[in-house]
Amino acid sequence: MECTIDWGGPDGMLFVARTGSGHITAMDGAPDGGGHNQAPRPMEMMLTGAGGCAAYDVVLILKRGRHKVSGCRVKLTAERAETDPKVFTKIHFAFLVTGASLPTAAVERAVQLSHEKYCSATAMLGKTAEITHAVSIVDTQAPAP
């Protein structure tokens, strides 16, 4: 795996990343740090990477279990250390999984397997941060109230 990061120039703190798979993304700093708020911060990108990794795992595990999953959203909230390096100290994953008659145990197991076995991003961030999660399920087969 590889990527290349290029600085956008002396007028700010915009950086452009090119991934080994051929994708491009931008990162910027806050205005008080010389940035112009044109893109996510690098630490926001780390957090989204962890969320994407975990959501990917949950959907894949449920699909492999032949469950009728139709949606997965994960909202992450994080706290950082007050002094440099300002690592993540707490990260909470709030999953909202949608599907037809999804067994609660299967969804909770998928989330647990992601955090304990499969998600590399969570495993790395878990070295400095307390990782917690919550699961909510929306049943698309439930009768309307």
Automatic annotation (TrEMBL):
Q: Enumerate the InterPro entries for this protein.
A: KH_dom-like_a/b, OsmC/Ohr_fam, OsmC/Ohrsf
The leader peptide range reads none
PANTHER family documented for this protein? PROTEIN YHFA
| The protein's name | Putative redox protein
Q: What is the scientific name of the source organism?
A: Eoetvoesiella caeni
Identify the taxonomic lineage of the organism of origin: Bacteria, Pseudomonadati, Pseudomonadota, Betaproteobacteria, Burkholderiales
